[in-house]
Specification:
six-stranded mixed β-sheet; Rossmann fold; 207 residues; single chain; disordered N terminus; 6 helices
């Protein structure tokens, strides 16, 4: 899994970044999932991100769990229940036993599958004193102090899977989504969760 290097973008680039956008790129539902929806007593949201990206993991878990709870589905997060190192060092059998003992019959995982960064020159000009603008913008500007700037666009692709623990951990749902230029862990999590919850509602998969 590639590491998620977030929030190291210079402040100027964040200022010029557009609104964060999230969209669904692919979505799949198992033929075994009925159109009436699948009933779960308790769903666990588990972010599969590295320790370095704990803030992102926590925000994504919380936002997705909140969206599912608003749908009337009892949902908890792995970080809240098991801490930041949930299931570390456990075998699959041990983890499954723990989940069953806690009454969890559905698990939704979130994994980063790709990160792309592109740089583009954006032409422009600013008025004002020469040195005031030059000294402030010079680390990021291209050429003359009244020229444009280099804009960086970063997109993050996530895969979200739903597993049915009542049925031998069968995969019921898998979706890939892309979020472009998030300006904070909270914004990324909110946009991501809205996209996934909307798709789950559309497919009438959970009830």
């Amino acid at each position: 899994m590639k590491k998620l290097a977030l929030w190291c973008v210079p402040a100027l680039l964040l200022f010029f970044a557009g609104c964060s956008t999230s969209k669904l790129t692919t979505s799949w539902v198992s033929p075994q999932a009925t159109m009436q929806g699948r009933h779960f007593n308790k769903v666990l949201v588990l972010g599969l991100l590295s320790a370095k990206n704990r803030a992102v993991k926590v925000n994504m878990e919380n936002e997705l769990a909140s969206g599912l709870n608003n749908m009337g589905i009892q949902t908890i997060t792995a970080t809240d229940i098991y801490g930041p190192n949930a299931f570390r060092g456990m075998s699959e059998r041990q983890a499954m036993r723990r989940l069953h003992n806690d009454g969890i019959d559905g698990v939704i995982t979130i994994a980063l599958i790709n990160k792309n960064t592109s740089r583009n020159y954006v032409p422009g000009s600013w008025g004002g004193p020469f040195w005031g603008y030059y000294s402030y913008y010079s680390p990021y500007m291209w050429g003359a102090p009244y020229g444009g700037y280099m804009s960086r666009t970063t997109s993050y692709s996530f895969e979200t899977n739903l597993y049915d623990l009542q049925n031998k951990s069968k995969l019921l749902y898998s979706a890939q989504s892309e979020t472009v230029d998030p300006n904070s862990p909270t914004k990324l999590a909110m946009d991501f969760a809205k996209t996934i919850v909307k798709d789950l509602k559309t497919k009438n998969l959970l009830r």
